Amino acid sequence: MAARAGAKTIAKRTTDWEEAAREPLGRGKRPDKGQFRLQVDRQTKRSYATYEAAEEAGLVIKKAHPILHVTVYDAVEGVNKLIALPK
Q1: Nearest residue to 37 via CA among 18, 65, 23, 57
Q2: How confident is the model over 43-60, as pLDDT tens digits?
Q3: 57: nearest Cα among 71, 43, 41, 68
Q4: Which domain holds residue 44?
Q5: Does residue 43 fall inside a structural domain?
Q6: Which of 4, 12, 31, 60 has the most CB atoms within 10 Å of its CB?
């Protein structure tokens, strides 16, 4: 085999570590603005200002997928309320 004609040098970039440390890695979590949080299988999907709005959204999900565990979490009182299908 023939030897390479010329060697290439690769220059390393310098990084400012303090600036890189301030940037969040990956997806940042958005803060919840509403008091009532809609949870599907213990995963928070969205927050709402009123219980009625969260319950309505939960019923739509529950009607489409009755096997799922749908709850509304009240962040102020710390209480989970289960959403059940109406009989």
Answers
A1: 57
A2: 999 999 999 999 999 999
A3: 71
A4: 35-87
A5: yes
A6: 60
